[in-house]
Design brief:
Chain lengths: ~400, ~475
């Protein structure tokens, strides 16, 4: 029997997704819960797992198609080894189950359900073109080949048209590549532009001497890793330094809502993570209540899962303040764009040994430029500068964090 | 204590009774409520079945009158309307009894009465023996549709009739005016024309049978006109007056213009049907309906209220018995936790006149509007040997296939017995067949179905018999 594959609920505010790609072809055998298709939403990619063990019977929405929650994406034919459905229903007869996909029988995954033999048009094409159609995945019922499948395979098997003699001066258009924007890219584009249009953004800079933090780190890194199972990085320090500064300058942790300013007495810190699909910003919730080790752990976990595209949607929503680190790519200075409706975003940069004046002497110190972009509509210049100075002080003298100064 | 069922189906038409039967097959305890008494709904009692009985009887009369002499048979046919109606009623009676038998066989509890949703999982039924309260896990709304009224015209089912009254007129009217050139108007109009009425049809649109492939509709109109039916298209009824000897009907062009008057003894109103949702407790239960009053469901036929489902004419889609039946099966399977599904692209539609019209899939107009490139193969029944032998060579078969993949997108037929032939086309569409697949499938000779094969060949320009 066949079970529909449906678009799962993807969290509030997400109603639409684009089919990024099918991970399985029609006719492929699949295990229960094995990912079948990847959906791209405004926020994150979501994999839809197979509702049952069996064979991917058909695909209803192809790559690039737009779907809503509940849309039927295709169907999985429950494995031939599964119990005959009529018996199944007899045994379940007493109470009707809700319209959910019945549990698959935990049987050894069948190689594939029997595919019906190809129709006459396909047999003719196969014969005439000496095409091995056994390797083609059929798009018809129960994976049967259709003439369309055979024609497509024929087209694909054609040797590429004799390479056109290199044209010395091809037009511009031929030397351009035009690709559709992914949904994530479109969303990023829209949000960033929106942010620039709505907020009165500007950036204040400072620099921080990282010697103390680095010394602390090299002293305790082994013990820290042994105890907490995670490397002692810089992010934890920055999160803690920012929270201390946010507590002192609440406007930076606030947002504008209509004619009101909403001050938030919790600190959900977004940490921008770059992936090959674009930037995502998972949020460390209630970061003020986390120990430095817990914050490090959360961030490391986000980074891994972001790269594997395994972040959950709810992990990307909200956030009261954001930290972004362009330093990992070597940036010395930049002006981050606010992640609306937040009012502040801290830009971290590359740590570079530079000569600095310490008292009357010139010393080489590991320095980092810090940037704070803020929404001048609700954060005053004095507040922004004080905030950044406080972050700098907390990092240059991490003991302040301990003493809550 | 209240009675208790897994599923209660409200409505015993082709949607309701088939849903109940399928539920029974799947091992669910099920009751089917219908207020009419004999089960089978509009279809069996006052729709498909009685109209087909009269269509067949009246067609035989035409055959005896006009075809017998061509075959060398001499006879002087006459008819007895009472006996014809009695035969019709007998068929209806047998088939409604058939439904009761199927209920028994599949352990469906029939309840005669007016069902109403009393709350989530609760249905109250007004029967002639008093009220019954039923508890259930699922409720299926399958209440179908009834005749849509025409403003300013009140149906008395005697001289101003709907399809219901037109199925049991006591005498053949001399002049009949049909309002609406849809399927029902043309079928019942044909019945009474064959029995001797002068039939005139007024239609608001500028074409008959909207939704049917335009080329087929045009040919259809031409053939009906040749049989003596008169059409007044792009016109509307604006007034009605009862005279001693019938009615005078004022008609105006749809876009306005000079008024003219028509006369008739019986007026048949066939301007469509509307979903039947009255007194079902839908609003109290919070079941959402669309702007046209149809119960809204998701793709699984469940309404916005969990545990309340809807199938057939009462929800969107073609008002066809077999569409309701398809949804009935899918709905029952969904309730039982299976994957019920209806392929709306492969639901055929048939007009049981002579010649018959049968279509499935997309029309040329729809494909043009959607910007899909297609090829057309056509084959006339004049070139079909079997059609020649039965002296029924009117009409043609048209196969429409995707220009690139040759996949069959639509099949449109007008001709003898095409209603029985459309199944092949539905199967082709259901299985994503190409026109070539039909062309390379053996068709018995000599049969009318060869015309489908030849039309499929014609898609690629190799029809062999013309």
């Amino acid at each position: 029997m066949s079970i529909e594959i449906k678009v799962p609920a993807m969290g509030e505010s997400v109603t639409e997704a684009t089919i990024a790609r099918w991970l399985k072809k029609e006719g492929d055998s699949v295990n229960r819960d094995e990912p079948l298709v990847e959906l791209e939403t405004d926020k994150v990619s979501v994999e839809v797992p197979s509702p049952a063990a069996g064979v991917l019977e058909h695909i209803s929405v192809q790559q690039g198609g737009t779907v809503g929650v509940g849309t039927v994406l295709g169907a999985v034919a429950e494995g031939a080894a599964a119990k005959a459905p009529s018996q199944q229903s007899k045994t379940q007869s007493a109470k009707p189950v809700k319209a959910e996909a019945p549990k698959a029988e935990p049987k050894p995954a069948p190689a594939s359900a029997p595919v019906p033999p190809p129709p006459p048009s396909v047999r003719r094409i196969a014969e005439e073109a000496k095409l091995d159609v056994s390797a083609i995945a059929g798009s018809g019922k129960r994976g049967q080949l259709t003439k369309a499948d055979a024609l497509a395979a024929l087209e694909a098997a054609k040797p590429p048209a004799a390479a056109a003699p290199a044209q010395p001066r091809a037009g511009r258009a031929e030397r351009e590549e035009r690709v559709a924007m992914s949904r994530l890219r479109k969303t990023i584009a829209l949000r960033l532009k929106e942010s620039q249009e709505i907020a009165a953004q500007l950036t204040t800079f400072n620099e921080v001497d990282m010697s103390k933090v680095m010394a602390l780190r090299s002293t305790y890194k082994d013990g820290f890793e042994k105890k907490h199972g995670v490397k002692l990085g810089f992010m934890g320090f920055f999160v803690k330094a920012c929270i201390a500064a946010l507590k002192e300058i609440p406007a930076v942790n606030a947002e504008i809502d209509g004619d009101d300013i909403v001050y938030k007495n919790y600190y959900d810190i977004g940490v921008a993570v770059s992936t090959d699909r674009g930037l995502v910003v998972p949020v460390v919730r209630d970061a003020e209540s986390l120990s430095l080790a817990e914050a490090e752990k959360a961030i490391a976990d986000f980074a891994t899962r972001a790269r594997d595209n395994k972040l959950k949607l709810e992990e990307l929503l909200g956030g009261t303040f954001t930290i972004t680190n362009g330093g990992v790519f070597g940036s010395l200075m930049s002006t981050p764009i606010l992640n609306l409706p937040q009012s502040g975003i801290l830009g971290m940069h590359k740590i570079q040994n530079r000569p600095v004046a310490i008292g009357d002497k010139i010393e080489i110190r590991p320095m980092m430029y810090l940037a704070l972009s803020y929404d001048h509509r609700l954060v005053d210049g004095r507040e922004a500068v004080t905030f950044l100075v406080r972050v700098k002080e907390n990092l240059e003298d991490p003991q302040r964090l301990l003493l809550d100064l | 204590m209240a009675e208790n069922f897994d599923v209660v189906v409200i409505g015993g038409g082709p949607g309701g009774y088939n849903c109940a039967i399928r539920c029974g097959q799947l091992g669910l305890t099920v009751a089917c409520i219908d207020k009419r008494g004999p089960f089978g709904g509009t279809c069996l009692n006052i729709g498909c079945i009685p109209s087909k009985a009269l269509l067949h009887a009246s067609d035989l009369l035409e055959v005896a009158r006009y075809d017998f002499p061509r075959f060398g048979i001499t006879a002087t046919p006459s008819f007895d309307l009472k006996a014809m109606m009695a035969q019709k009623d007998k068929v209806v009676g047998e088939l409604t009894k058939g439904v009761e038998f199927l209920f028994k066989k599949n352990k469906v509890t029939p309840i005669v009465g007016e069902g109403k949703i009393a709350g989530p999982g609760r249905v109250s039924v007004k029967t002639k023996d008093g009220a019954r309260e039923i508890a259930c896990k699922h409720i299926v709304i399958a209440t179908g549709s009834d005749v849509a009224p025409l403003a300013g015209v009140s149906i008395d089912e005697k001289t101003i009739v709907s399809s219901t009254g037109a199925l049991s007129l006591p005498a053949v009217p001399k002049r009949m005016l049909v309002v609406g050139a849809g399927v029902i108007g043309l079928e019942l109009g044909s019945v009474w024309r064959r029995l001797g009425s002068e039939v005139q049809i007024v239609e608001f649109l500028d074409r008959i049978v909207p939704g049917v492939d335009a080329e087929v509709a045009k040919q259809f109109q031409r053939l009906l006109e040749r049989q003596g039916m008169k059409f007044k298209l792009a016109s509307k009824v604006v007034g009605l007056e009862k005279k001693a000897d019938g009615y005078t009907i004022a008609v105006e062009p749809a876009q306005g213009g000079a008024r003219e008057t028509l006369e008739a003894d019986v007026i048949m109103v066939c301007v469509g049907r509307r979903p039947f949702t009255e007194n079902l407790g839908l609003d109290e239960a919070g079941v959402k309906r669309d702007a046209r009053g149809r119960v809204m469901t998701d793709a699984h036929l469940q309404t916005n209220v969990p545990g309340i489902w809807a199938i057939g004419d009462v929800r969107e889609g073609a008002m066809l018995a077999h569409k309701a039946e398809d949804e009935a099966v899918a709905c029952a399977e969904n309730i039982a936790g299976r994957a019920g599904h209806v392929n709306y692209d492969a639901i055929p539609s048939v007009i049981y006149t002579y010649p018959e019209v049968a279509t499935v899939g997309k029309t040329e107009e729809e494909l043009k509007a959607a910007g899909i490139a297609y090829k057309v193969g056509k084959f006339p029944f004049t070139a079909n040997p079997r059609a020649k032998t039965i002296l029924s060579t009117e009409g043609f078969v048209k196969v429409i296939a995707d220009a690139a993949t040759d996949r069959v997108l639509g099949v449109h037929m007008i001709g003898p017995d095409v209603g029985n032939m459309i199944g092949e086309a539905s199967l082709a569409i259901e299985f994503s067949a190409s026109a070539e697949d039909i062309a390379r499938t053996s068709h018995a000779h000599p049969t009318l179905t060869e015309a489908i094969r030849q039309a499929a060949m014609a898609v690629d320009g190799w029809a062999m018999q013309m």
